TrEMBL record:
<dbReference type="InterPro" id="IPR005746">
    <property type="entry name" value="Thioredoxin"/>
</dbReference>
<dbReference type="InterPro" id="IPR017937">
    <property type="entry name" value="Thioredoxin_CS"/>
</dbReference>
<dbReference type="InterPro" id="IPR013766">
    <property type="entry name" value="Thioredoxin_domain"/>
</dbReference>
<keyword id="KW-0813">Transport</keyword>
<dbReference type="GO" id="GO:0005829">
    <property type="term" value="C:cytosol"/>
</dbReference>
<feature type="active site" description="Nucleophile">
    <location>
        <position position="30"/>
    </location>
</feature>
<dbReference type="InterPro" id="IPR036249">
    <property type="entry name" value="Thioredoxin-like_sf"/>
</dbReference>
<comment type="similarity">
    <text>Belongs to the thioredoxin family.</text>
</comment>
<feature type="site" description="Contributes to redox potential value">
    <location>
        <position position="31"/>
    </location>
</feature>
<keyword id="KW-1015">Disulfide bond</keyword>
<dbReference type="GO" id="GO:0015035">
    <property type="term" value="F:protein-disulfide reductase activity"/>
</dbReference>
<feature type="site" description="Deprotonates C-terminal active site Cys">
    <location>
        <position position="24"/>
    </location>
</feature>
<feature type="active site" description="Nucleophile">
    <location>
        <position position="33"/>
    </location>
</feature>
<feature type="domain" description="Thioredoxin">
    <location>
        <begin position="1"/>
        <end position="105"/>
    </location>
</feature>
<protein>
    <recommendedName>
        <fullName>Thioredoxin</fullName>
    </recommendedName>
</protein>
<dbReference type="Pfam" id="PF00085">
    <property type="entry name" value="Thioredoxin"/>
</dbReference>
<keyword id="KW-0676">Redox-active center</keyword>
Length: 122
């Protein structure tokens, strides 16, 4: 599976309708973004069970602002609609693989319990 272009119209539904979604926030003028793009593409081909979305921060400035993007590239990873990873910086292929493996291995019941406890102030 290749990457999918995400827009303000498709971002929320893509995250809610899929188990695991990786989102690369990027821009054409960004050197590190251009370096990360082929790494992201290869991972998309290797993991057809995962959705790999790309948000062009130039075309989707409002979406990038709503997502709190202050540096690009930024990778966000969602599992079952929950944001489980959010870091700026271009990743090498082995680091991206580690993140994907870790996210696939998450026990989402535990993650939700942790979120509930954090939101309850405990």
């Amino acid at each position: 599976m290749s990457t999918t272009t995400l827009t303000a119209d498709t971002f929320t539904s893509t995250i809610s309708d899929n188990d695991i979604v990786l989102v690369d926030f990027w821009a054409g003028w960004c050197g590190p973004c251009r370096m990360f793009a082929p790494v992201f593409e290869k991972a998309a081909e290797k993991h057809p069970d995962v959705v790999f979305g790309k948000v062009d921060t130039e075309a989707e400035g409002r979406l990038a602002a709503q997502a709190g993007i202050t540096s690009i590239p930024t990778l966000m990873v969602f599992r079952e609609g929950v944001l489980v990873y959010n870091e700026p910086g271009a990743l090498p292929a082995p680091a991206l693989e580690q993140i994907i493996t870790a996210v696939k291995g998450l026990d989402m019941d535990v993650v939700r319990q942790q979120l509930d406890a954090a939101n309850a102030g405990g």
